[in-house]
Structures are given as C-alpha cells and as structure tokens.
Design a protein that fits this description.
Helices cover 59% and strands 14% of the residues. It contains eleven helices and four strands. A four-stranded antiparallel beta sheet has the order 1-2-3-4. Helix 8 runs parallel beside helix 11.
C-alpha cells in the first residue's frame, strides 16, 4: 500500500511539473508573438517626409541697390499734425468765403446795386456798369476816358470803396459811401502847369498825353472822401444817380479843379 501511494505522489508531481512547463512555454510564445507584432507595426508605419530647404539666392550688390531704390521711391507719409494743419487751413478759408458771402447778401438791394456798379467800373466792365448807371451822364464832358483800357487801369489802380450806411424810403435810398482814389486835384493842376509851360515854349502838347504821364508816376497822392450816393428804383431795378456826389466819390477833386480851370481862377 505504501508503495502505491508513493507512486501516485510521484505521478501527480510529474504531471504538475509538466503543467508548469506547458504554462511557461505558452507565456514565452505569447511574448515572442508580441515582439513580432511590434516589429511588423514599425515596418508598416509611414516614413516622415524630409523637409526641403528653400534655396535663398545670395544678396548681391545689384539686389541691394533695387531694395534701396524701392525704399527711396516711396514718399514719406505726412504726419498727423501736418494733416490737421492742412484741414484747418481749408476750413478757415471756406468759413471766410461764407462770411463774405453772407455780409454781401445781407446788404439791402440798393447797396448791392451800388457795389456791383463800382466793382464793374473798377474792373473795366463798362457794359455791365450801364445796367446800374447812365455812363455817358456820369462822365459828361470829362477830359478822362475810363473806357480806354490803358487809361482805365491808371485812373482806378488805387480805387477802394466801402458802404458805411444805408437809409431807404420807399423807392429811394441814400447810401453813405467811403472811397479812396488818386487825388485828381494834384494830377490836373500838375498837368495844366506843364501844358502852359509847353505852350509858352511853342511846343505842341495835348492835355490827355500829359495826364497819362502824371498818372504813370509811382508816388501818386491819394485821398479818402465820404459822399452820399442816391439810388432809385426804376422799372423794378435799382439805378445809381449819376450826380456830382458819385463823380467826386470816384474821381475825388476832379470836378472842382476842372471848374477852377475853366473859370480862369487857376
């Protein structure tokens, strides 16, 4: 009996050893399979693309010149301060023009008619002057000829005017007008003196040519005067009265001096 038990133990132990060996072999096989699978995965993995380096052309003297030329061609942009100054200057000019226009429009119609007449007179637009005053009546028998372009520029080169006051009653307005122009008393007296000298020296001379000589002088004396100008509404339009006040306003001292000369009290 004892021998049989010993044999059975031995058989059991041998079977257990065989089982352990079998388990170890299976574990080893599993490890080998894992290693093989890993190697296959590594082989199948896609290769990373190699980044190509961009070829940069070396900068030569010519390329440096072109880059510097481009830099110099670009104009310098104005700074914010310069832009603001320019905008302000334009705004001030526009405002001044608007103010002048508003002042002009604020003047009563008779004053506007007088201003337009005098402005056209100074500019030599005598056809437009006729719209506001009788030109022939204004000039009368004067020795001056403002319709002559050369003489007109000389007669009116210093002419300035300003409306000071307007008084209107119905269709008649009285306008206080301040003007500055050549002192024609001095011009006519100087011309008359030269004319007498030439006459006594038996020299041929005309008063018109002598007047032109006097008017062409640089140091001509000017005078400022204030006259009351009459403006009347005729056929729905304001017309300036061509009287002595208007003549004295445009040609200060001329009428009185001519009267003195013709009366022989020179």
């Amino acid at each position: 009996m004892a021998e049989n038990e010993e044999k059975n133990k031995t058989v059991k132990e041998s079977k257990e050893e065989q089982k352990k060996d079998t388990v170890k072999k299976e574990e080893i096989k599993a490890e080998v399979k894992k290693e093989a699978v890993k190697k296959e995965e590594v082989k199948k993995a896609p290769e990373k693309p190699v980044e190509e380096k961009k070829f940069e052309q070396p900068k030569t003297a010519e390329t440096k010149k072109t880059t510097t030329a481009k830099a110099t061609k670009e104009p310098a942009k104005p700074t914010g301060k310069k832009k603001n100054i320019a905008v302000r200057a334009v705004a001030v000019a526009v405002i001044l023009l608007l103010v002048v226009a508003l002042i002009y429009m604020a003047l009563p119609s008779p004053a506007r008619a007088l201003q337009q007449m005098l402005t056209n007179f100074k500019a030599g637009n005598f056809e437009k002057v006729e719209e506001f005053v009788d030109y022939d009546e204004l000039m009368g028998d004067s020795i001056l000829s403002p319709d002559d372009q050369e003489q007109s520029k000389l007669l009116l080169k210093n002419f300035q005017f300003a409306v000071k006051n307007v008084s209107q009653k119905g269709d008649v307005a009285t306008i206080e007008l301040e003007t500055t122009n050549i002192n024609f008393e001095v011009i006519v007296r100087n011309a008359a003196t030269k004319l007498l000298q030439k006459y006594f020296n038996s020299e041929d001379a005309e008063i018109e040519s002598i007047l032109l000589e006097e008017l062409q002088k640089e140091d001509i004396e000017t005078v400022t005067t204030t006259q009351k100008i009459t403006v009347k509404k005729q056929d729905g339009k304001w017309k300036v009265e061509a009287d002595d006040n208007l003549r004295n306003a445009i040609f200060p001292g001329l009428m009185e001096t001519l009267e003195t000369l013709t009366s022989g009290t020179f």
